[in-house]
Sequence to fold (245 residues):
Amino acid sequence: MGFEINGKTYETDEEGYLVNLGEWDEAAAKYLAVEEKVELTENHWEVINFLREYYNDYQIAPAVRVLTKAIGKKLGAEKGNSKYLYELFPYGPAKQACKIAGLPKPTGCI
Amino acid sequence: MTESTGGIDMDEDSSGTIKKFAFVNRKAPYGTIYALESLEVVLISAAFDQDVSLVFADDGVYELKKGQATKSVGMKNFSPTYRALEGYDIEKIFVEKESLDARGLTADDLVVPVEVLTSDEIATLLDEQDVVLSF
Fold:
């Protein structure tokens, strides 16, 4: 499974997550966002970039609770709450934002 | 008062009980799946707000060793993930002194801050747990 943008192919698993993190780029994020019916704004990119940094540091996708807390620490309390994150990613910030960010599905995420 | 919901007894007194869980890690990080599986279970267990301790002994101390180079064995280096545990509110990490000594290691060689305990102290710690899971 996978998709193609401008001649570059991206391999995905059965749930639509990128198989190779290294393949991720902005074009892939935009494609995955359309698939998820999310219109990307600067606020979305802030979370996406945060997730990529988190993965780079820790080699895992964070659980929602951990993501919320870490976002609050870095971007301020008005963004570090689940209401804000669910408004950006209605089907679950961890699941949906991770997919768009090219990360694997978070451990323990149902 | 006990309320029955879908066949599961929701006892208000016991549903909020926090148990003491210890995850004991005794194997080298690569070569078997134990170390990684243990770490995944620990991360999932964090969602249940229990009192979690991690214990590293024997070759398990290598799981926390700095500078793991796994490219040539074709495995992902998951040691950075131990540094994420703090964000999951898992901060009780104990390492057996004898195991470190036997391998010429000290707490400074490890990727996270740990508390070094002797074998006897670890035995006492495990005695105090409600659940001990060995990997």
Chain A touches chain B at residues 57-60, 62-63, 65-66, 69-70, 107-108 (CB under 8 Å). Chain A has five helices and two strands. The two ends of chain A are 22 Å apart (CA to CA).
